[in-house]
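Dear colleague,

Following up on yesterday's call, I've attached the two folding results inline so they're easy to grep. Please treat them as preliminary; we haven't cross-checked anything against experimental data yet. The first protein's sequence and structure tokens come first.
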Amino acid sequence: MGNGDSGANHLLVVGCTVSPCLVNDILGRVSARDTDWDGVRLHVVTGKGGTGKTTVAAALALALAAGGRKVLLVEVEGRQGIAQLFDTPPLPYGERRVAVAADGGDVYALAIDTEEALIEYLEMFYNLKRAGKALSKLGVVDFVTTIAPGLRDVILTGKASEAVRRKNKDGSYVYDAVVMDAPPTGRITQFLNVNTEVAGLAKVGPIRNHADVVMSVIRSPQSAVHFVTLLEEMPVQEALDGIHHLGESGIPIGAVIVNMERSPVLLKGDLDAAAAGTLDLDQITHGIKAAGLEHDAERIAAVLAREAAYHAQRTALEAREKARLADLDGPRYELPLLADGMDLAGLYDLAQSLRNQGAA
């Protein structure tokens, strides 16, 4: 899985769907820097299911950690996807180093357990650790987070924002950056806009105050929400819609990251002929026989022609979807489809690709 090339100092905006004033406001929050995201310390990665957002989040964490930095990669959906990517045992509810980045630097990971986080939350704000554990045994924790899902989101985003703000005794930040593998695009605005979510729960008090602190981080120039997509109609549309909705919410938008991009394997003339069904089957058959495959060469040629037609259609679809993304005035990174599949080495390759394009 992957994303490949681009790079440049553009920032993300949805052409005609967002008003010019709103666009200028968003752009003003993330100015041109040595890398596209200097000064950004919370990177939220979202995308439609199946686009590889967890892989991209992990690659971005590796890219940001390169050169001696310390980065925390946070998972909020309870899938243990980070552990699988880094080939480690399931992550506990605690920050654990999972990788060493290029040229030094460390990636730590945290899989947030909602139940543990709620107990921690009750202890921190209400001094109710024992009560929290009792509630957990009674199943009340599940009940509370079900009837008040906004509280769950406050807890999850709160853990990430706390890591962003956490400092050492000398005043330096514990983590140079935090990368959150966030929920899918369809839920990202609700998930991040925690002030709205808790409005019906609390007007004042610890919950409300905590939500305000979380939003002060999420809405600040220290944050950026990146959208992962494939060059397919549904993922691209969800990315465009998500960018629009986040822009209206005043949450800083980051980059579009095109994942698993395929390179054409045919020249343009051959692609056009394949799409039109006018490939020279005799010539293909001759080539097959020249390769030593005399038996059933005509049938193999017909199969190859059908595959070429599918490839041409796929290439045209990807070109069309890429043109839709070109209307976004913002960084767009492209990661390639890895022919050998995703493994740890591939993850480092994707991280290097992101660095080459200015993402870190």
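Below is the second protein, in the same order (sequence, then structure):
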Amino acid sequence: MSHSPFPQRAHDQLALARGESDPAIKQILLESALYYFKKDADSNNQFARVERYMANIKMARIEPWDANLNPDDITYDVNDVDDILAKKILNDLEQRGISNIRITAQSPEGFVVKSLAKFIGPLTKSQNDFDKDVIQLIEPKPTGAANSGNTLADLGLHVDGTQHSETPAVLIFYYITGAKVGANSIFVDTAKALLDIDEERRYEILINMARPDAATFSKKNMVHTGPIFYFSPTGSLVCRIRFDDVIQVHPDCLKDYEFLKERFNDPQYAIEFRPREGDLIVFDNWRVMHARDEVYGMTVRRHWRGWVSTLKPTLQPRHYLGIRPVPTAIAAKIEAANAQ
């Protein structure tokens, strides 16, 4: 009795896929492997395994990073904002979650943020208690409110929009004036920090902190209670966390919160640099936390800020945001915890 030729063909296609760097070609090879496994009656288990592998490949177009990331590697010096630049930004958002653009000889106006957002997704109509899609010239002052960009003091690691039911997907900061001393921006890739945690402990944290009453966020007369980890309407795993007095954590989540606070604040995970005048920093607010150290001197930094609610519908099937990859079984448990 001869053996079916299908498994061998499937294995050949799978081997080619694992060595292929081009995402489009890799996807074709994987689909071909699935086809052959599906045709062979004795390959049900292998079919399921390859299907899971494909899901991880699709969701894991990601390059987790730590303090070794050179800010120059995510910086582009350009003359204008066009569709070619937009593709680079989207690629950076998907892989590293952050991109920095320096536009030559451009006037420091808010429409620059709006023009860039058109390539990414819709701006939210308001930000916290401001009924504007772009906040004008955030400027730190001695009397500025604590835990906001208007204070001269340190800002702890956080994501924006925590007191909203849905946190914005992407943030755009456009720097007009740079400080002479201090005011260094700090960014941390939560995906990398989480991946370095023992797998069993990592999933335990994600599931526990996905409960709907995991934390309460109170800021500017706005209050929201919700999960710290949750799935967005587009299927991305969102990290909604901050390390300041805006957040009050449920007692059952406090141990995990303190664990993440220590880990995310570990210098080995942070990149730190002072934005230059004209810098446009775009980053995944569902994945990358940001902070800023104290501002000193007479010259303080000023910048515009825009919140992008989600990627454009045409981009969502092709680009992924948030923390990933997440195994299907764990994702199901997180969603179940969100729905309790």
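For the second protein, one point worth flagging: The first helix runs from residue 6 to 18.

Best wishes,
A.L.
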